[in-house]
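Entry:
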Amino acid sequence: MRTPEATDRVQLVFSLFDANGNGVLDPDDFELMGSRVVAAVPAADEAAKGALLASLRRYWTTLATELDADGDGRISPEEFTACVLSPERFESTIDEFARALSTLGDLDGDGHVTRPVFVALMTAIGFERPNIETLFDAFGPVDGDRIKVDTWAEGIREYYRPEKAGIPGDHLTAGTKR
């Protein structure tokens, strides 16, 4: 069963992925998003940057394969919501994206992401700063104001689960209209 929180989360993600603001998703949106995100962490490993870009390209390919029945190369908000809230259709794509984004933030390879790096990456995606800070705190930072890469990756996976409510990712939709 889809929760209202899940619908809010997906609507927000659609608006952020629509990087060129034309109301639909197309391949250029994912390239633009990828460039902004990797630029936010210039000290990141090149392999990690490449993995993030590849995960976003796969995200687009999965959407286009699953949803673009008319072959126009665009995905509407309605098509997007139907796909990403169907875990059986999208789970491996989200998993790849979750691993790539959270690993990109682990600049020293210690299995943790610092608050400044987390904030930089999430800001590059387009989330609001207060919501980012609240999310980071919800992930339970440890010594040195860091969160575990695995905790963040799991938070991303949960974000796309239609039956989930009351999860840390719901902090990202605070202040958005339903």
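The radius of gyration is 15 Å.
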